[in-house]
Amino acid sequence: MIGVSGGAYTYIRMGMGNVMAFIYVAKELLVRNSIGLLVMLLTFSKYLVSMLPTCGSPQHLEKMIAALTLVFLFLVNSYSSKLATRVSVLTTLGKVAALLVICVGGVVAMVQGVTSELPSGFSGTKSDATPIAMAFYNALWAYGGASFLNCLVEEVKSPDKNVPKSIVMGTVLVIFIYVMTNVSYLAVMTRSELLQSDAVAALFADRVLRNFSLLIPVAVMISTLGATNNSMFGYSRVTFAAARDGNLPDCLSYVHITQFTPFAALALTVTLTLLYLIPADLGEFINLGGFLDAFFEACVFLSMIRFRLQTMKDAHRPVKIPLVIPILMFLINVYLFIAPVIIEPSLQYIYVAISIPALSILLYVPLVYFQIKIPFHDEIVTRVQLIFELCPPTQEKF
Questions:
Q1: What does the CA dihedral 86, 91, 94, 99 come to, rounded to 10 degrees?
Q2: Where is the chain membrane-spanning (predicted)?
Q3: So what's the pLDDT on residue 271?
Q4: Among residues 14, 2, 27, 3, which one has the least CA distance to residue 239?
C-alpha cells in the first residue's frame, strides 16, 4: 500500500507525525543499527576465533576481526547493490544448509536415544514480567529480519506481490528450522553447556558430527556474514529515506553517480558501529535493542490501525489482514516496553527510555524545525561529493 522505502520509519512518519519519526530514526542511527550489526559481527568473530590456536582472553582479536569484516561488507555494499544481493543469496544458502545439517543430526541423536534436556521441558522457567520480556527480546531479534524488505520497497520488483510472499514464506521456513535447531541442541547438550558456550553450534558439531565438526562453525560464520550484509543493506535505506525527507542532513541521502548505492548512509552507519565496538557486550546489546524496538514496533502497529480506521481507510490494499492482528501486536509490544520500566523497574532501561527521546528532541528543534546550518557544512559536503563522486537522489516522497 505504501510503496516507499524506509519501513517502520515511513509508517511512523505517516501515522504519528514527523517528530515521532525523527525520534525513531535517531534511535536507529545512534543506537539500534550499530547494536544490530555488532551482535552479528561479534558472533562471526567468536566462531572464527574458536577455530584458531589462541591463548588467554581473545576479546581484542574478536573485535579486530569484527572491525575488518565490517569494513569489507561496507566496501561490498558501496560498490554494488547487485553484488551485495548476491552475497546475501549465497550466504543464505549456506546458512540454511548448515541449520538443516544440525536438524538432521539432532533427529538422528534422538532416534538413538540421546535426549539430554528434552524430557525436563520448561522446568525452572521464570514467569516474572521482566524475564518473559527478556525472552521475547531474544526471540523477536531472531525473527526481526522479516521487516527488512519493507525498508527497500523501492528496489523490489512488483513489491505488492513479492514482499508479502517473501515475508510469509521466509518466516514459516525460519520458524520450522529454528524450532528444530533448538530441539537438536537440547537433545545433545545440557542447559549449562548451552548457556556457557560462546559457540553453541561448534559444541554441537563436536558432539554429533565429530570428523566433520569444522563444517558447522564455518557455516555459522557464513550465516552471520550474510545476516550482517542484509542488515547493513536495510539500515542504510532507512537513513537514506530519512535524509531524503529532511529529517537528517541531505548529504546522507546522496548516492554514487554510477553505482547508485547510498554511500553516505552506509559510511555513517559503519563509522558509528566501529565506535560502539570498543565497549561491546553481546548479551546487553540484544536486550537493549529488543527494549528499544518494542516501543517503536507498538508505534508501527498503532499507525497501521490509524491507516485502517482513519487516514487511509479507502486506500487500495494489495494485502489486507484482520484488524485484530495489529491490535494484538500493539498490546504485546506495549507490554514488552513497560515490563522492564514500570512492572519491575531497571535503571538502565529507564535511563535509555528517557535519554533517547530527550536527545532526539534536542537535535530535532535546531536542525530540523529551525533548519540551522552547521558552520562550513556546504564546503565540507561539496568536497566529500567530489572525492567520493556522490549526488542527490531523485525525490520520491509518499
A1: -140
A2: 21-44, 64-84, 96-115, 135-154, 166-188, 208-227, 260-279, 285-309, 321-343, 349-370
A3: 92
A4: 27
C-alpha cell at position 168: 510469509
Crossing angle for the helix pair 215-244 and 18-27, to the nearest 10 degrees: 150
Asked if 299 contacts 25 with a C-beta cutoff of 8 angstroms, the reply is no
Residue 198 gets which letter from DSSP?
A: S
C-alpha cell at 180: 528444530
Instruction: Report if pTM > 0.70.
Output: yes
Burial class (CB in 10 A: 0-12, 13-18, 19+), 154: middle
Give the helix/strand (H/E) hosting 256: strand 255-256
List of residues 6+ apart from 155 with CB closer than 8 A: 5, 81, 237
Per-residue pLDDT tens digits for 37-71: 888 898 899 888 878 877 666 788 888 999 999 99
Residue 154 phi, psi (nearest 5): -65, -20
Q: What angle do CA 237, 232, 291 make, to 5 degrees?
A: 90
* CB-CB contact of 12 with 303 (8 Å): yes
Q: Please tell me the distance from the alpha carbon of residue 319 to that of residue 323, in angstroms, as a whole number.
A: 12
Positions in the chain short of pLDDT 70: 55-57, 279-286, 344, 395-398
Report the distance separating Cα 395 and Cα 393, nearest Å.
Answer: 6
Q: Which amino acid is at 226?
A: G
Give Cα separations from 223 to 172, 201, 282 (angstroms).
18, 12, 17
d(CA 217, CA 46): 10
Q: What is the Cα–Cα distance from 200 to 219, expressed in whole angstroms?
A: 13
Strands 390-391 and 255-256: antiparallel
Largest CA distance in the chain: 71
If one counts every other C-beta atom within 10 angstroms of the C-beta of residue 115, the result is: 14
The answer to whether 299 and 13 are in contact (CB under 8 A) is: no
Interior angle at CA 299, CA 298 and CA 305, nearest 5: 90
> For residue 269, what are the CA distances in angstroms to 37, 39, 73, 137?
9, 14, 12, 23
pLDDT digits (tens, 9 = 90+) for 81-96: 888 888 888 888 888 8
Per-residue model confidence (pLDDT) at position 386: 93
pLDDT of residue 82: 87
Which pLDDT score, from 0 to 100, does residue 88 have? 86
**pLDDT for the residue 398:** 44
**CA pseudo-torsion sign 177, 183, 188, 190:** positive
Q: Rounded to the nearest 10 degrees, how much is the dihedral formed by the CA atoms of 39, 44, 45, 50?
A: 120
